[in-house]
Amino acid sequence: MSVTVLTGSWASLGDAASGIRHEVFVREQNVPVELEMDAFDAVSIHALALDGETALGTGRLLPDGHIGRMAVRREARGAGVGSLLLQALMQAAQRRGDAAVVLNAQLTARGFYERHGFAPEGAVFMDAGIEHIAMRRAFVPG
User: Which part of the chain is the N-acetyltransferase domain (predicted)?
Assistant: First the structure.
């Protein structure tokens, strides 16, 4: 597998990204479709992981520094795709001058984000019927 990650707008990456998000969140995790799609897609920076022409995963960076909608197709999990997406979104945040990034991690993914320098903040909470925890990673100035 030779994975590349593109970053761009919803207009350029949304078709592929929405397909992955529907597959992972709506079909696998039973998130209601009306909760999965929102107005933030149009104003976010999106990342799309590709193996050739095959879309494997996606994520987004909101204008306020939140990373969200991280989703990797089942067959690509465990191959580093999520790490590549997260790194691309963090780099995009740094390029635009964000001091930190934050996210609401599904509790089962907490260890993944901790390995990427994120620290938990606050208590576990429910979102779309799934346990989450807020996490933050500050960037070192320089």
Answer: 3-140
| Domain residue ranges of the chain, discontinuous segments joined by + | 3-138
Strand partners, 4: 50
For 135, phi and psi rounded to 5 degrees?
-140, 155
- pTM of the shown model: 0.94
Nearest to 57 by CA among 96, 87, 91: 87
Q: Does domain 3-138 have CATH number 3.40.50.150?
A: no
Residue 99 has pLDDT above 80, yes or no: yes
DSSP class per residue in 43-74: GSEEEEEEETTEEEEEEEE-TTSEEEEEEE-G
Q: How far is CA 70 from CA 64, 124, 129, 142, in A?
A: 16, 18, 17, 27
